[in-house]
Amino acid sequence: MYHMKGKSNWIAIDWGTTNFRAFLLEDERIIARLAEPCGLLSVENKQFGATLQRLLAPWLEERCALPVVMAGMVGSQQGWQDVPYATLPAGAQNLVRGTYTFTTPWGSPAWIIPGVTGNSRYGQPDVMRGEEIQLLGLAQCHPAQEHFALLPGTHSKHARMRQGEIVDFTTFMTGELFSLLCQHSLLGRDLPEQEPHDPSFALGIDTASEGTPFSHLIFSARTRRLAGEIALPHIHSYLSGLLIGHELATVDGGQPAWVVGSSALTARYQQAAGRLGLKLNAVDGDTCFLQGLNSLRSLVQEIA
Amino acid sequence: MYHMKGKSNWIAIDWGTTNFRAFLLEDERIIARLAEPCGLLSVENKQFGATLQRLLAPWLEERCALPVVMAGMVGSQQGWQDVPYATLPAGAQNLVRGTYTFTTPWGSPAWIIPGVTGNSRYGQPDVMRGEEIQLLGLAQCHPAQEHFALLPGTHSKHARMRQGEIVDFTTFMTGELFSLLCQHSLLGRDLPEQEPHDPSFALGIDTASEGTPFSHLIFSARTRRLAGEIALPHIHSYLSGLLIGHELATVDGGQPAWVVGSSALTARYQQAAGRLGLKLNAVDGDTCFLQGLNSLRSLVQEIA
Predict the structure, then answer these.
(1) Does the bond joining A89 to the residue before it have cis omega, within 30 degrees of 0?
(2) How far is B200 from chain A (nearest CA, A)?
(3) Which residue is closest to B218 within chain A, CA to CA?
(4) What digits encode the pLDDT tens for the residues A218-246?
(5) Which of A33, A118, A189, B246 has the most Cβ atoms closer than 10 angstroms to its Cβ?
(6) CA-to-CA separations, A121 to A149, A157, A171, B187, in angstroms, rounded
């Protein structure tokens, strides 16, 4: 029904904790997109079906029962359905096996792709939900025996792939720590409006690369402010440099690496990497997400 | 007047950002004490004189014009008087030279002891205000050629002293990071009432000692919760272990070390140190503070 004439319309959804994004597609071609601050936290009483129907209403009027493929925190304990994590190594087949299949209240076939769990490079338990789709997409867009990729964000991921399968990954709470320090710590107190400042960002990167323990490292945002070395409007740039530098200090410079995300964020990481002698190839996060989810859609629809 | 008959009454004050503590003394003997949540942040329009007079009123009625010796953030830019930091190496003479002398509105001779600035063990600029008094007191209570001391707190300090002078020190934002993560991060979200739990604390210490990058390390409070390895009421204990473990991982086990503070806090650090094969000798923070401030009082009164 929904893939007659060889062309398929479908809806791709990235439903996270704070944001909701949807794409109306014809195969891989974007017809329309939606972005709303309607993450899981804004959904009351687990009314996920009704919320989604409301969000997608403009698209569903014309084309009812479009297939819906979802990834992200929507598959977590706090989401629509608790979909157990796939384990490492995780490739497309593994994710498809763990995919949750159901029908929406308005009759669309729907799938929620699982996240992935495994041990990080440091032997800690780790989890991701959503980034595994981008990683699959990356490996499809840029085929290679191995990939090492950085996915910066609230909880940045560093992942290694082999033959298109995720073999390990590590989370860094870079974005969340940055927000916490700016908004709630002594370091961010009594600041005027902030402006981006490359030299302060660079100083943060350089300072973080020296192996200084983190809980001491960040205090330099206080002492350099007291000493007049960083102007008040540039404290956030310096803190951003410290946080990204702390994350990038873990990267082995000998391996080629990808950075996956929005152009603003990947450019920032490339700028930081340049100071550290690392080479990061940037790829668009949405492109990877849609590529990865489209390939999974084909597989789950074959089964259905 | 105020040290007739060889005995001197005086007031010692530790005035910080959030708390105010005062001691009425006869030389080194405590006659009375006060503690109020009246840190600098609660003082409006720089009304420090009036605020102090109100806080000390019960003592001033009987004994007017008692000498007042102050330390802590009261000597900072945000305090009563911006008293420039003393530089390293910092001993009693150095602190006395930088002390700000004045008379309170009600006629008491008063002194504000400066803080100390210098480069940390990691080559970063660093500052302290208040801890220098405890360090002087420690060296007087327990004379030795060298001291290495930990002063745990919101901003923990690790200091080295030689011949009674502070030669370097390093700040770790242990207490503040703990509060931030518990109160404002994903890691502390949706937790029931917390209860102390030694095994979770110990697991945090052990996990932090493995050299894992901090922004990845703390994510284990999330993943171990998801995996059911740490019960919900014990997340704070685990985070406390991670934070203190991250701080103690920087300590060289070969040197004898002191830990200066309240009995609750020093006991916690000793417990953590025990797991790491470190030996910490605990000393009471108030005892050190009063000993150090009393010795400085003698010196500044001699000059006055």
Answers:
(1) yes
(2) 15
(3) A173
(4) 999 999 999 999 999 999 999 999 999 99
(5) B246
(6) 13, 11, 10, 21
